[in-house]
């Protein structure tokens, strides 16, 4: 029972973990990233389409690149174009939704999904990406808190002018952070199409990108917090599913809708228990960098 | 969007004309329009089934690269199930298909087809109910066919319009057969995965449970709803859980979530567990030939073809119709997989089908009727 629960979490969480950890990078650098959904979609499609003609692990890398490419567009709009970051992110989501469908119909003449690919192999019962999702948040945590790059990244999201005064190029640093964030989202998307399923399905990622953004906020803009929140969401879902099937009698007392709301109710509960004031967004979040300002 | 569609239509119309001239075929007497829901062409489910009824079964044409080509009779025959081959005859007509991309397209698209002078306009899916109602009221001279929903008034009560035929399906009857087969294949536990918990999906659940109860009264049915119709990950998670709890057959009525359900069963089989999935709406065995036992098929194609045939014979009538096993509206896809005792199991399912068609067995369509359901003696 408990093992099954754990296994369910390990299968379901990675996509959101990758995307949420990625989103922290972009936002810590001061660029709002609500385009995670679209970047995940690009990753999921890219990985599945590439895996048709090459080994699946290479396909995953193509998915990562696809996510990064879409993020580069977001970065260009937000940093060079200084456009509204939320609007740009939402636009990316909408464009990718339609563009994915267009590519499906144009390249595979099937709006339902791509043909089947070879699924990623399983290591100890789970895909390699699951194990990567456990290690990666710690790596990113160390990078953000213990390296010069991490210090600059955090500073650029708080007081970019100060960082510029120290001789660091703000736009380049931000651009890199957003692209990296897209690469992570692409990896999350690729996990959906190469490990959860064995093809790209036309609805992917069906809202998981927004879950990732929520996990990032819930995790207070820290890599470990975001990953923890993503795991927590997955745990709530797994608990709900497991409860319904292990105690069928329960459904006669509790309506199914209450169980469906369980993950969200748990989230509210934890949010209400969090210390106040500790959750603070980066100070320069959402503001385009203007070197003229002081 | 509307103008773009019109342009596409005009182009398609132009192509059609030139190919007509080349073949010197007689000008078709009828024009039949069809408006898809947002699923559109190629959804491998509802819309494709309706398009098959119109384009292949009736018009015997294939749609390639934006135009229609005449289809060889042998190709057409191959796309009609064996039981219907003799009945389903071609009709001389010109199809006029408009795909909807967003919900706001439904009404303008229907009006567009009316303006093109279509003799019959097919609206595919319950999502078009409001649009069909509005357009039918504005164009009293045009005839409409609405699939999967009656016309509802503002309070949600069914009403009839003098120029609209509606078709709904008795999904519970097909699901009953799926349940009966599942009960025969499984020993102790079977699973049901629904999408959103709405009355339509409840019909599937009630029928399925009654079927299991009939052939395997001791079996436990585990029921799960994913709460969505478009999240494959939820479907897979739910099905993985059901398989881990010991379900030997899992039936889904969960739209795209079902892709995840079938994937979970496929992976469990690869890991050595003897478990099967049962698909829904169309034959889903192509998703995982080794794991999909059968599918509960809704014959939307037949409903569309029948309306066109009635129109040709001047016998088209408005009003609500219901298609169940008897009318061929629902059915089980052919079982190609082997399992122990297959011949007897299929014979038993066949006998139950006969009993439902004759009216000896009435399949429950909701939870309340299910409680009062008494399994027929075997």
Notable characteristics:
heterodimer, A: 294 residues, mainly alpha, 0% strand, globular, B: 378 residues, alpha/beta, Rossmann fold, 2 domains, 12 helices
Describe the structure.
Chain A is mainly alpha-helical and 294 residues long. Chain A has one domain (14-223). Chain A has 14 helices and no strands. Chain A has helices at residues 2-12, 14-28, 36-51, 56-80, 85-108, 128-146, 148-158, 160-165, 170-196, 208-218, 223-246, 250-253, 256-260, 262-273. The longest helix of chain A is centred in the middle third of the chain and has 27 residues, at 170-196. Chain A is globular, with a radius of gyration of 19 Å. The model of chain A has no long low-confidence stretch (mean pLDDT 90). By secondary structure, chain B is an alpha/beta fold. Chain B folds into 2 domains: 2-169 and 301-323, 3-Layer(aba) Sandwich (Rossmann fold), CATH 3.40.50.2300; 171-297 and 340-371, Rossmann fold (3-Layer(aba) Sandwich). Chain B contains 12 helices and 16 strands. Chain B has helices at 2-23, 46-58, 73-78, 106-115, 129-138, 171-185, 199-215, 232-244, 257-270, 300-312, 342-358, 367-371; strands at 30-35, 61-64, 67-70, 93-98, 120-123, 143-147, 151-152, 158-159, 164-169, 189-194, 220-225, 249-253, 276-281, 292-298, 319-323, 330-332. In chain B, helix 4 packs parallel to helix 5 (129-138). The longest helix of chain B has 22 residues, at 2-23. Chain B is globular, with a radius of gyration of 21 Å. Classes of the chains: A mainly alpha (294), B alpha/beta (378).
> What would you call the structural class of chain B?
alpha/beta
Helix content range of chain B: 40-55%
**CATH fold naming of the largest domain in chain B:** Rossmann fold
Structure summary, number of beta strands of chain A: 0
> How many angstroms does the end-to-end distance of chain A come to?
58 Å
Biggest beta sheet summary of chain A: none
The topology string of helices and strands of chain B comes to HEHEEHEHEHEEEEHEHEHEHEEHEEHH
């Amino acid at each position: 029972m408990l093992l099954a629960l754990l296994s369910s979490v390990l299968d379901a969480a990675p996509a959101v973990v990758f995307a949420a950890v990625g989103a922290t990078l972009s936002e810590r650098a001061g660029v709002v990233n609500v385009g995670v959904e679209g970047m995940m979609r690009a990753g999921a499609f890219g990985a599945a389409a590439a895996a048709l003609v090459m080994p699946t692990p290479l396909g995953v890398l193509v998915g990562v690149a696809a996510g990064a490419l879409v993020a580069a567009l977001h970065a260009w709009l937000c940093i060079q174009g200084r456009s509204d970051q939320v609007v740009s992110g939402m636009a990316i989501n909408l464009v990718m939704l339609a563009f994915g469908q267009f590519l499906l119909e144009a390249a595979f003449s099937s709006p339902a999904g791509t043909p089947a690919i070879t699924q990623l192999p399983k290591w100890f019962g789970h895909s390699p990406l699951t194990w990567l999702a456990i290690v990666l948040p710690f790596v990113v945590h160390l990078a953000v808190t213990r390296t010069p790059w991490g210090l600059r990244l955090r500073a650029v999201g708080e007081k970019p002018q100060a960082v510029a005064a120290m001789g660091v190029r703000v736009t380049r640093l931000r651009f890199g952070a957003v692209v990296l964030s897209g690469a992570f989202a692409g990896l999350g998307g690729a996990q959906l199409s190469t490990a959860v399923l064995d093809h790209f399905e036309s609805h992917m990622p069906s809202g998981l990108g927004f879950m990732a953004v929520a996990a990032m906020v819930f995790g207070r803009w820290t890599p470990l917090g975001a990953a923890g929140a993503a795991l927590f969401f997955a745990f709530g879902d797994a608990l709900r599913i497991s409860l319904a099937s292990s105690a069928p009698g329960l459904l006669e007392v509790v309506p199914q809708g209450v169980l469906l709301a369980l993950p969200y109710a748990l989230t509210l509960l934890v949010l209400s228990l969090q210390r106040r004031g500790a959750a603070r967004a980066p100070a320069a979040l959402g503001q385009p960098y203007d070197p003229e300002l002081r | 969007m509307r103008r773009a569609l019109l342009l596409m239509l005009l182009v398609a119309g132009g192509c059609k004309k030139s190919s007509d001239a080349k073949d010197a075929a007689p000008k078709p007497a009828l024009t039949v329009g069809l408006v898809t829901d947002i699923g559109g062409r190629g959804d491998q489910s509802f819309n494709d089934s309706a398009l098959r009824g119109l384009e292949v079964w009736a018009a015997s044409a294939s749609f390639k690269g934006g135009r229609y080509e005449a289809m060889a009779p042998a190709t057409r025959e191959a796309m009609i199930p064996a039981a219907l081959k003799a009945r389903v005859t071609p009709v001389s007509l010109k199809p006029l298909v408009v795909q909807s991309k967003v919900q706001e397209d439904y009404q303008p698209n229907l009006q567009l087809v009316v303006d093109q002078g279509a003799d019959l306009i097919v609206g595919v899916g319950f999502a078009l109910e409001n649009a069909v109602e509005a357009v039918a009221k504005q164009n009293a001279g045009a005839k409409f066919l609405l699939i999967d929903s009656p016309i509802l008034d503002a309070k949600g009560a069914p009403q009839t319009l003098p120029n609209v035929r509606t078709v709904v399906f008795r999904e519970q009857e097909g699901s009953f057969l799926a349940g009966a087969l599942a009960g025969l294949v499984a020993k102790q536990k079977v699973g049901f995965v629904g999408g959103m918990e709405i009355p339509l999906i409840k019909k599937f659940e009630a029928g399925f449970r009654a079927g299991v109860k009939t052939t395997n009264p001791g079996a436990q049915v585990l029921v799960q709803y994913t709460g969505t119709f478009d999240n494959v990950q939820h479907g897979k998670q739910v099905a993985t859980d059901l398989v881990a709890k010991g379900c030997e057959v899992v039936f889904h009525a969960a739209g795209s979530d079902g892709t995840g359900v079938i994937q979970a069963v496929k992976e469990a089989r690869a890991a050595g567990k003897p478990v099967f999935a049962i698909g829904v709406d169309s034959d889903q065995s192509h998703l995982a030939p080794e794991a999909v036992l059968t599918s509960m098929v809704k014959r939307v194609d037949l409903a569309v073809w029948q309306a066109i045939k009635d129109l040709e014979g001047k016998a088209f009538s408005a009003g609500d119709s219901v298609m169940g096993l008897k009318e061929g509206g629902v059915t089980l896809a052919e079982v190609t997989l082997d399992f122990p005792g297959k011949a007897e199991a299929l014979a038993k399912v066949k006998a139950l089908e006969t009993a439902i068609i004759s009216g000896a067995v009435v399949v429950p369509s909701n939870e309340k009727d299910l409680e009062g359901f008494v399994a027929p003696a075997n």
